[in-house]
Specification:
284 residues, alpha/beta, twelve-stranded mixed beta sheet, 5 helices
Length: 284
């Protein structure tokens, strides 16, 4: 443990995992001085004030996401300095306190861990996994169940050649310069990233489709996903067109509960047997 200042209070560092629906946010990063835009980090730091640290608490987020992008499990580290003579909070207390005082119901802290004071959430991450969900054959977005409309990208095309997509995706695997994927003015200085795995597969039917709609869904609206494992794709802000898809999680050495590559089944042929498609990307 390090000291907060020259004498007195002791600093304790924590790693926290948290998830959020990104629809209402301008991304995960805190927005300073703009009252019309807000990031997930703003709400986390506001809740952390109730921990009564003698120094302001700032979250260092592992992986940034764009406006409208969701996270199943993002990560950040923070330092808490309690008054002299008080022991550090337990990780369980930190988790409970943050969840109790969060003022937005679309954010949830999953778990907290005590970590060494030199631990850095961004630099210590060993991989990041991204999940994108697409629905095909949707003439209008309202054909999707309301619960899917902010977490799935609706496409008018009725069928995607997944075999061709899977073959093409493999050209992205490995270490490459992803400058062409960067947005204008990106602060990233090094566009070289390594993609460990990319997969395209039919996903399971949405649990939000009513039985009486299922037959129509099979005929007109199908969902697919694309996925992979590896590092960031050339920009600090990883987004998906239309705010679709969920950013999965970061993986740390010794942390197997988040960010693990998951098999989504064999990629089907272009006959589109399932209406849901998933793209998963894992990177380092």
């Amino acid at each position: 443990m390090g000291s907060c200042g020259t004498v007195g209070p002791v600093r304790a560092r924590y790693l926290v995992f948290f998830q959020y629906l990104g629809t209402d946010f301008n991304g995960v990063a805190a927005v300073r001085g703009n009252h019309r835009a807000v990031g997930v980090q703003n709400f986390l730091e506001e809740a952390a004030k109730r921990l009564n640290s003698v120094e302001p608490i700032r979250f260092t987020v592992s992986s940034r996401t764009d406006a409208g992008v969701h996270a199943l499990s993002n990560a950040a580290h923070l330092d808490i300095c309690r008054r002299s003579g008080l022991p550090p909070y337990s990780p369980e207390v930190v988790t409970q306190a943050l969840n109790t005082h969060l003022k937005h119901r679309d954010i949830r802290v999953l778990k907290a861990f005590r970590v060494p004071n030199d631990f850095h959430a961004r630099r210590a991450a060993t991989s990041r996994t991204y999940l994108y969900r697409l629905a095909t054959g949707c003439s209008w977005p309202h054909q999707l169940p309301v619960f899917e409309q902010n977490v799935c990208w609706a496409l008018q095309t009725k069928c995607l050649d997944m075999a061709a997509m899977q073959e093409a995706a493999q050209h992205l695997v490995g270490t490459h310069d992803f400058s062409a994927f960067q947005s204008a003015g990106s602060p990233t200085t090094n566009p070289v990233r390594t993609l460990q795995r990319v997969s395209v597969s039919s996903g399971p039917a949405s649990p939000f489709v009513l039985p009486q709609e299922s037959r129509l869904q099979e005929k007109s609206c199908s969902t697919h996903s694309i996925s992979g494992t590896g590092g960031q794709l050339g920009t600090e802000d990883d987004g998906c067109a239309g705010g679709c898809g969920a950013r999965d999680s970061d993986t740390y050495t010794g942390e197997s509960h988040s960010g693990e590559s998951r098999s989504l089944g064999q990629v089907s042929d272009s006959s589109c047997p399932s209406p849901w498609l998933v793209l998963e990307v894992s990177a380092i």
